[in-house]
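Async update (no meeting this week)

Hi team, since we skipped the sync, here's where things stand on the single-chain job. The sequence we agreed to prioritize is pasted below, unchanged from the tracker. I ran it this morning and attached the output directly underneath so nobody has to dig for it. Comments welcome in thread, and please keep replies under the output.
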Amino acid sequence: MKALILAGGFATRLRPLSCTRPKILFPIVNKPLLQWTFERLSKSRVNEIILAVNYQTEVAIRQHKIPKYDLKIKYSRDPLMKPLGSGGPVKKAEKLVGHDEPFLVLNGDIFADMDYLELLEKHKKGKGIATIALTRVEDPSKYGVAVLEKDGRISKFVEKPSRDEAPSNIINAGTYALSPEIFEYIPAGKKVSIEREVFTRLAEEGELYGYVFDGLWFDIGKPEDYLRINKILLKSLAEQKFGVMGKVELRKPVAFDVGVSIGEASIVGPNVVLGKNVRIGTNVHVRDSIVFSNTQISDSCSIETAIIGDSVIIGKGVKIMQGCILADHVKVKDNVTLSAGVTVCPAKEIEESVLTPKNIC
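Output:
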């Protein structure tokens, strides 16, 4: 079985962190999102992955050396300076996918605890051209909402309705089982929305089915969503044994990668993820935050509900408040305060406190 992963987006809502990494490589409890996806596909007996990417994303994935779980990996590259939307990459990968059997298509920025094999089996029984995985959410107004009939067909989609006008709370979960006939519905070399153009037509023809699943599902498109999925997964982790020296208070749940060091009198947690080789000084308090690899946090700092990028250097006595995001290679001088909602672009140096929400580039 084959799966096509759409990974060519630019993750604008996750800037400035996405300035230096594609969304599919964002770590979730210290494991890249793409690795979580590979692992689940492998368990569902998929054996070949096609990554629809732009050039920068392909380079980043190859450099990251993610475990392949015995999957065969191929690349289908979008043309430079010509994004193809969500449908165009499917058509472009036609030769790699082939016409022998149904295949999966996944949006690469979705975390889903899904049985992909069950989705494929549901698709084969329905005998339509496309079967869309659907999930229930509290607020459907941000998504494409499905009108699902008793026989499993989707009669139509309502795109981002208001809460009062939504026909249901069942939304498009960004994963599809498709028959090879789908290629006839997508013009070559053009930007095509598979959701708005292709699926709408299939629904009108009675060829679009839905598969509702109840597993964990998250679109990590916004910083608050990214923090939330890490927090949820932290709670489900087994007890970890920490090789942390000194008198440190750990308020679980927390997760550490290898090489983490923490100084005395520091309090870490709850809901904290520390990447590889993170160094934390003495008398530091970190809570509800994600700290990427190779970052240094000096003595007497306070960090709350923030995302700190790779190789950041934070001086002594720094306060980083709720909603702050520091991109890779940022340097923050001693005794600086960053108030709620401050974001800092890669490699910037912050010498003075920032007391109002702003983006520093």
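Quick observations from my side:
The first helix runs from residue 33 to 43.
The first strand starts at residue 2 and ends at 6.
Reply here if anything looks off.
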